[in-house]
Amino acid sequence: MKHVTRWLFVVLFVSSLTSFVKKDRLPVGLEVGEMAPAFGLAGNRPFALDSCKGGYVLLSFWASYDASSRLHNAQLNNVLPDLPEEVKMVSVSFDDYRSVFRETVREDRLRFAECYWEKPASSVYGLYELEKGFGNYLLDADGVIVAKNVTASELPSYFN
Q: Is residue 132 within 8 Å of 28, Cβ to Cβ?
């Protein structure tokens, strides 16, 4: 009986600790209504966020070693063809190695044209406070954040 009581106490204690963790949203730092920081990428091909002005931009930050961000990125990529043409996805991987990035893009069947690889030491990592966690941002035509951590099922509702 003591063994069962002790085990029950351990289970209750552990579950009480994990109940305070917010599980439904990623802890990304920037907030809705803020202007998205402009950036450029040099990793696998040049890119500048300013080149996307005039339409909606979905920024998705991920890494292959972060299962949750990788899954969300793949799901968003799959729903992209169902969105209006003025929506552009910019998928940025922070994998340590370009070869891992390429293999993940191939394995997840992502559109390579929308995928960029950047080193984790990149200034973008700091600008978007990604040390707090990977996630995504939906930007309007002026570069203002209109939503963050949007799921693939929520994304179409922003354009209906």
A: yes
